[in-house]
Design brief:
single chain, about 250 residues, Rossmann fold, about 15% strand
């Protein structure tokens, strides 16, 4: 109902409608989101509690497949920003997308900042190198949202062991696909080892890591426990990312 009302408001004009709910409840909004994408109207869905990080509410409320399934929808921007800076950038992009609806997938839990504002809206490119390697790069780690600090910590572990590693932030698959081919190639890079980490299913990430790349994420439903306990239980940790990369060197 809320999502359908937002569509009506957008079609009437004069406002940019936005609404908020848990990301898991995107399933209830899906028909209206799909129609917004089909009609090409500007509505913004702010969907929080976007992973197992919501904690004790358990698997009924923990999105696992939702981000991937929304990314599969044509003419829909799915933003999964990592911190306040990326969130502000994605919000601006959603407001400017006059013919495309948007979903902002945000966390419940606190997350570390990964970037200072540098003026340029880096999220507008869909993906960008966040941190380069301090030595010739052997590993590229791709990530989004609350897992980006995990990717950065994994990079530090690899670098400490003498393995050059870079980290790429991927806040919006759809905007990345609109970039020039040379930019896409530069961001993906040429390292032999590519790893992605996201607290959801793998679908869609092979675009970045290839079918032989390593993925650290979810392969089933979540559980009821504090967020840090769940991340450890499901192996979504910096140590697991670093180990997966080393296993492919």
């Amino acid at each position: 109902g809320m999502a359908a009302a937002m569509n009506g408001m957008a079609l009437h004009g004069g406002v940019i409608p936005y609404g908020g709910t848990f990301l898991c409840f995107a399933d209830y909004s899906r028909p209206a989101i799909r129609l917004a994408a089909l009609m090409g109207i500007r509505v913004v869905h702010v969907m929080t509690h976007d992973s197992i990080g919501l904690g004790e509410d358990g698997p009924t409320h923990q999105p696992v497949e939702h981000v991937a399934s929304l990314r599969a929808m044509p003419n829909l921007y799915v933003f999964r920003p990592a911190d306040a800076v990326e969130t502000a950038e994605c919000w601006k992009l959603a407001l400017e997308a006059k013919t495309t609806p948007s979903v902002l997938a945000l966390s419940r839990q606190k997350t570390a900042g990964v970037r200072d504002s540098a003026g340029e809206n880096l999220c507008a490119r869909g993906a960008y190198q966040l941190v380069g390697a301090s030595k010739p790069a052997q590993v590229t780690i791709f990530s989004s949202g609350t897992e980006l600090p995990i990717a950065l910590a994994a990079r530090d572990l690899l670098e400490a062991d003498g393995v050059g590693a870079r980290v790429v932030s991927v806040p919006c698959f759809e905007l990345f696909e609109t970039q020039p081919a040379d930019y896409q190639a530069a961001v993906i890079g040429e390292t032999d080892v590519r790893v992605a980490v996201e607290a959801g299913v793998r679908q869609g990430w092979d675009r970045f890591i290839g079918s032989d790349g390593a993925f650290i994420g979810m392969i089933g439903f979540g559980g009821s426990a504090p967020d840090k306990a769940l991340y450890a239980h499901f192996g979504i940790t910096a140590e697991a990312v670093a180990a997966a990369a080393k296993a492919k060197l």
